[in-house]
Amino acid sequence: MKTVLPDRQQSLVQWVSQATGINTFGVKVRLRGNDLHILCEGTECPQRWHTLSDLLQALQQTNLDILTSNEQPSIYQVFVYGRRKGEQRPKWCHRVYLNQIDKHLEQVEQALLADSEKSKQSGGALIVSNESLARQGNPEAIARYLSETLSTLGVSVQAKIKLYKPKNSQPEENRLWIFCQSSYSPDASLLAEPIAQKLRYLKLSGYQDAVIVSQVSGETVHDWLLRVDLTPPEVMLKEWARWGDIQAIARLLTEVLSGLKVAVQASLKESTLHIFCTPAFDPLGTAPIPDKEVCLKAIVPQLEAIAPQGILAATVYGQKAGDKQPTWIDWLALPAAKHPAFAPSPLELANTGDEPAIIFLLERLLNPDLDWRLLTGGIRVLLLNKNDLLHIMCDAPVCPGRQQVASKITQFIRQLKIPGMMGVRIYGRRAGNKEPFWHYGVDLEHRQRLVPEATPEFAATSKYVNDLVTSETSEPILRPDLTTEEVQSFVTEVARDWMATASSTAKKFLLRSQLFTESNQSAEHNHDVQGIKIALVWGTLGLLLTLQTDWVLGRIIARTTPSSPKVASAILPSSSEHKASLTSEKNQTEKTTFFSSTSKTKSPPNQSSVFNASEFTQNDDTPTKNLAAAPLKEKATATAILLAARSQMPSFNVRQLDEQLALYKQRLARTGNPPDVLIIGSSRALRGVDPAALSKALATQGYPNLDVFNFGINGATAQVVDFVIRHVLEPSELPKIIIWADGARAFNGGREDITFKSIAASAGYKQAFQKTATDANSDDLAENAVNSGDKKTNEDVPEISTYQAVNESLNQALASVSSSYPNREQIKSLLQKQLLILGHNQTVASERQLTDGTSDESTSRQSVDFDGFLPLSIRFNPARYYQKYSRVTGNYDNDYKSFQVEGQQDAAFQEVLQFAQSQKISLVFVNMPLTGDYLDPVRRQYEQEFQQYMLRLATNPNFIYRDLSQQWIKVNDYFSDPSHLNRFGAYEVSKKLANDPMIPWPVK
Fold this sequence. Notes:
5-stranded parallel β-sheet
């Protein structure tokens, strides 16, 4: 024998080479799950039985776990292949069970002794399959049995038995635990049904259920849990047969009569069961008719033991398969005819509110395929009647879809008309989970409630539901003696009286000012003198008030203006843009001071508002700690509006798209080349990737001076991005890498795409599809807009009238003597700041939405800088945020309505992929971060579907997918609201992208 006992340091390849005598260049090994695959090849194909003999003898003397790392799971079986070098497929393959090496050796020795030409039988000992051993309930054998399927997926398996003590003082039970470990996180839906089928196929006794635990190698916390119901199929059939299910009764009777070669068919008419006995196999029509006495002797005890609910009698027929008339008939009385408790049908019991009957009918409704239910356990129903609501939990190895079950259950419950039942709440979850993945509710009658009902807790098994139900709570209800109509009438009367009083008071005030008169008052002919006097009085008062206000404002600005000189920005070449830059910079300095004053300087006492007027809510605008972020840049609001207004391209009905396009065209005209990196997407891209931070981080990675532009558009979907990239921008205006930053909701083909519909109805959309080669001069639009201050023509500037000239000269004269006019932007900013502190004006609320990071489009546009980026400094605080805005769960989020990745959004994404490939543009999709508050069970499920969709497409050339959705789910300081980053989070995302070695950044 050529085997040399290896030491701990020798590799598997060296060990196989020493054991078989094959050169190490002819040996290849691979570990997948619990399986070891060994390929032996040479100039001639290695002989099967000689190679196996040497290898098996080496396996007898070697513990393979010594040759693998401690992190590698145990090896259960070895696959040995043999082939000639250069060939694609092996000539032979042999599977070796490591727990039966002695029997394998005996089989190989018999094969070596036998004459292969005279006898093709290998002989030897009988190899027992892992399935046969697993049926005996041995946990190691069960693990080996499951590994035969899961090892191909790179999943290793271990099995253990643990005692489980129920909470209702029942004796301890055995529970089977299956631990699955892999180098990646397999989706539960991928493993759930295969594992459930294989475990149920074993028909294990002594186990109520099995718990499957999936965990990534090296992690300390499991990814997901799954419960598999191990109730034997025979027990499930008897349960349904007990409720009178015809298909289950026929299946049981067929198993009883299978030994007699009799097939059974059954049907129900009214309350009588009709059973037809025919020959099981009669292709020629010569088989005898089933014997009456033999059939009845087998059928009657079964029906009496089952005692089907609501079936009073049974008629048994004996005939051949093709005969129209039976040869013999017999009639049987069933237990329901004698016992009144068995007489009502399940539907009649359900109408009275009988919970077991409702559960059976619902499970039968949701499991139309009986075979599938017996294979996997099917969809299981748990029921809980609480107050006037019926709570229904549906669970299965794979969470039932809401569209799959909710409408069916609702329609069925409506038909039942259970007394006292005013509503139904339906939940779905994966078997083994305590919390539902989704929920759905319908009120069958009008219910007057002030607060929503809490979701009750459902146990993993129906036996322990009562132990986990939440305690009753005394919920406030509306007064029964006060109807909705009375309340509405009262509110209307109060509002009408208030409006009448307010109108009368305002009318009297205006009439007293003598500036207004009643419409029905007769006109006076001699009113010139009186009118002149009134005009002089009011004019004098207005002038004095104006001068006094101007002087006061000038003094206030003189106190608040810092002594340091302002430095003008020199980014833009033209004089008009230089002026805009000065104004913008001044405004930005004040905004920056507002955001940072609470952390860097002490506010005056009259501006320090830690509590609101009621001394109840703390003001959370004060950051708790300093976070890194790129410096705030000059704002581009005025420039963007001006460029969009002067653009010769028609509007797209989306103002932000018009302004972002104008800024982008200006950038092209100024630099002469497209930016090196283009960021595109919805508001999550607009706020979530900072071009300045990305450019700086790339410079530290060896990519200096890269130009980055953010083309984010609020509400942009895959269709909008496709339209911008392929139709709005020319190929020459696109960079070599595009960062698409967004998430699942931008790819939801089931919701209405409002943004794209607005674009599709615009004149700009039509022109974009009608562009010809003669439209190349449109590239000069941005340059014309930039130099508009120096290159105005008589055609662009209308003639100035005399009135306009006088008005302009008066304005300039008054501005020269006014102390507040030159500082009007500072006055505006100061007033806004004071109004924000008071917080009593609705206009101020709209301004605060900007600092709170809300999605108000009109205010968001005002803060975009020249790189197209929207920097928000507010930090998401759930306690304060949900005082202002209602919490919207995934069930009621229109962005996830009828969620599906297939459809128009998917088609648009495929067009982008093909276009990027044809233009040799690298496309990087970044699934942007979300908060833990936002990722409720419903949104998590949709996010998982979206990730699977993206992973399938990640094999496309020039496409890279990066998932950051759960990167900072607990770091609220990086977010401005539950689903959008602030500038601190954008800084971190930009750094992370710059440090990604797989992204092909351009090199200048």
